[in-house]
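Incident log, entry 3
Record: SHSP domain-containing protein (159 residues)
Problem: checksum mismatch between cached and fresh output.
Input:
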Amino acid sequence: MASLMDHLFTIPETMERFIFPTTPTHSGNHSGGGAAAEASAHIHADVLDCPKEYVFYLDVPGLSKSDIQVTVEDENTLVIKSTAKRKREEVDGGVGDGEGCKYIRLERRSPQKLMRRFRLPENANVSAISAKCENGVLRVVVEKHPPPPKPKSFQVAIS
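Fresh output:
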């Protein structure tokens, strides 16, 4: 059952990998596969299957809740994306005089576009989704529909 759930959640990202393949380079950046693959980055996620809900934890460092969009597409695909850029720190506030200062190294750049898709199982209630972004971690909760009632069986007496 766990393997089936894992498979359902990863179908959209598997399809994207075939369409826009990426290969790691020496510097740890991903390239190849055209402009779409270069412009988009993978968001790391943990997915929990709880009795009454599915909980997604996604790393979104440097982004605020206003930078992130959580939507449902095609009735059962959860899409988490951001097109915001990380803002550079101001060069004043006790560092030099603020004028004439320039960055000599920028390693903390975040990709311009982050996106992750998850195919939701049939029992996911797409109208009951909540999200909270705190300390660089996005938590998305998708409630489950209650299980259908089991049909009652009767013993019919034969006359």
